[in-house]
Specification:
With 464 residues, the protein is of the alpha+beta class. It is built from 16 helices and 19 strands. Bound molecules: flavin-adenine dinucleotide.
């Protein structure tokens, strides 16, 4: 990385606006900002400056300077996305939100919370809970994931089945546009049908249309109680049938995650928790509601899944241990070969067995190892590939397998991402995934907001 350069003229201008300590331009300081979670990197010769604004006005000044100088702008939260989303591939100014990390207001009466872009999802959940309220979206890395990043990707997580994803809990946004102007996208009211839904346009736009600086989030009353149960099956098909059986019965659990045998084994070796590693698949089920509801739902599901081996949880400590194990699938996989790439595809729920079978065949063809798990209730499957980034041959095989994985998901009526987004990693598949006309309209929308193509360029779709 020694060839990373900095645009010193622009750095000087930014220092004047923000003060020297809020501008990072030495190679040592900016190195940490050159990767995302999949280790997507900037080109060595790129010019990068990292800025740490503390206010909306400072963000506006940064963006205006970049607009005048036609310099790319990349917003960055915790840098944990899997799709190269926050990597400034063409160089440019990276706006890091670590200093804009305050919860501005919580209203129990209005069931909402106003936050700056750099607050973590974990902190939002913690503070909501102190008010007896609930912010359900829960990406597994919620302790570090920022709300700016989570909204820009419309992150989900295990509770998506019952509660939806980030897009379902945002009422209003403050966004700095490409020319530095600040807009409000909606209103803080619980209902609002005035004009186009710009809020939802920015959610999931991956920093390509504007910079989210503040959000008003919708909260709901906290369910009184939740409880998990683990159901083991002899096949993926049996587990998928069980998911449908539960949903058809009228019960919507808050979580129904699927883990295959290899995932169970890999996690158990990483964090011994007592998972039954001899089983072919497991459903990690959580039910919630009033204490009585939870008891009834648990009893009903146990009776319904009479072909499953049910592992009941003894106490809250054991429940927390199993949650930690469930969230550790990524870390556990990384121990197998040193590196891990998480993929993310989604299919209609009934197609999960065909998808998992297809993934296994592809992996066999290319001699790859993957822990297959995901949010079965949503049809959202994540093969976590254990890789060694230094092994060029393995990486070539991985990229071929990835092409076939996306073809497979599309052929099953699914798509190339359920929650991780498109970034640069999946940009080449977007036209095929959404169709020619929708793709062309999307490019026009991009042009309306960002005619100079400075907002996170070459992400989502390639603009020539
Ligand atoms: C271990 C692990 C587990 C995960 N589990 C889940 C999961 O269960 N469910 C799930 O959905 N995802 C999951 N993820 C991925 C998840 O989507 C992201 O990690 C997270 O939500 C991104 O937040 P971030 O702060 O790291 O954003 P970054 O990675 O920094 O940025 C993500 C994207 O958002 C843009 N962006 C960031 N801030 C702003 C802003 N203020 N305005 C405009 N654009 C912005 C960036 O430019 C980039 O395109 C996981 C990731 C890891 C590493």
């Amino acid at each position: 990385m020694t060839a990373l350069k900095t645009n010193s003229k622009l750095a000087d201008k930014l220092c004047k606006v923000l003060g020297k300590e809020a501008v990072l331009d030495s190679i040592e300081d900016i190195y940490a900002y050159t990767h995302d979670n999949n280790c997507e990197q900037v080109k060595e010769e790129s010019q990068i400056i990292v800025v740490l604004p503390s206010t909306i006005e400072e963000v506006q000044k940064i963006v205006k300077l970049c607009y005048e100088n036609e310099v790319p702008i990349v917003a960055r939260g915790a840098g944990t996305n899997h799709v190269g989303g926050c990597v400034a591939k063409q160089g440019g100014v990276i706006i890091h939100f670590s200093r804009m990390n305050k919860i501005l207001e919580v209203s129990r009466e209005n069931l909402n919370m106003k936050v700056q872009a750099g607050v973590t999802v974990g902190e939002i959940q913690k503070v909501a809970q102190q008010y007896g309220l609930f912010y359900p979206p829960d990406p597994s890395n919620l302790k570090v994931s920022t709300i700016g990043g989570a909204l820009a990707l419309s992150s989900g997580g295990p509770r998506g089945l019952k509660y939806g994803t980030a897009k379902d809990y945002v009422l209003n946004l403050k966004v700095v546009l490409a020319d530095g102007e600040l807009i409000t996208t909606g209103s803080d009211c619980p209902k609002n049908v005035v004009g186009y839904n710009l809020t939802q346009l920015f959610v999931g736009s991956e920093g390509t249309l504007g910079i989210i600086v503040e959000a008003t989030l919708k909260l709901i009353p906290k369910p009184q109680k939740s409880k998990i149960l683990l159901a083991y099956f002899d096949s993926i098909e049996a587990a998928t049938r069980a998911v449908n059986k539960i949903l058809e019965s009228g019960i919507t659990p808050s979580v129904v995650d699927l883990l295959d045998k290899f995932t169970l084994k890999t996690i158990e070796e990483f964090i011994p928790t007592g998972l039954k590693t001899e089983k072919e698949s497991m459903l990690f089920i959580e039910v919630d509601g009033s204490a009585k509801d939870v008891e009834n739902q648990e009893k009903f599901i146990i009776e319904l899944l009479n072909n499953a081996d049910i592992q009941q949880i003894e106490n809250i400590e054991q429940e927390e241990a199993f949650w930690t194990a469930r969230r550790a699938s990524f870390g556990a996989t990384s121990r197998l070969k040193g590196n891990v790439i998480t993929e993310d595809v989604v299919v209609p729920r009934t197609k999960i067995p065909a998808l998992v079978e297809g993934i296994k065949k592809i992996n066999e063809k290319y001699s790859l190892t993957a822990c297959i798990m995901g949010h079965a209730g949503d049809g959202n499957i994540h093969p976590n590939y254990a890789l060694n980034f230094e092994d060029k041959d393995e990486m070539t095989r991985f990229y071929k397998a990835k092409d076939e994985l996306f073809e497979l998901a599309l052929s099953l009526g699914g798509t190339v991402s359920g929650e991780h987004g498109v970034g640069s990693e999946k940009a080449q598949y977007l036209e095929q995934a959404i169709g020619k006309r929708a793709y062309s309209i999307s490019k026009q929308i991009k042009y309306i907001f960002d005619a100079k193509n400075i907002m996170n360029p070459q992400k989502l779709f390639i603009v020539k």
